[in-house]
Design brief:
The chain is mostly helical and 98 residues long. It has helices spanning 2-7, 24-37, 48-59, 66-84; strands at 15-18, 43-46. It has a two-stranded parallel ribbon. Helix 2 (24-37) runs antiparallel to helix 3 (48-59) and helix 3 runs antiparallel to helix 4 (66-84). The chain is elongated and about 50 Å long. The termini are far apart. The model has no long low-confidence stretch (mean pLDDT 88).
Amino acid sequence: MNTFLGVVPAAVPGIVFLSGGQSEVEATANLNAINQLGGPWPLSFSYGRALQASALQAWGGDTASTEAAQAVFVHRARMNALAVAGEWNAEMEQPVAA
């Protein structure tokens, strides 16, 4: 954080990290950790795969699995919303009932 504070102007509207190479839960945990540090800018991840991977896996291209995939996606979105506020913890990662 000290590096950001020393070189990134407070007027910058936000800092976004890539989530590539991390699992969904790992990316969420890291997002939570950086947001607990605070700073003058919003800190987030550019989530592509870390938000969608489990939902795509649950769906598998089968329309009969649409509701299950939506439930998984909503769970990931909720977990990441909590992480943006620095309020996520691993105990919240319960399996999603489909």
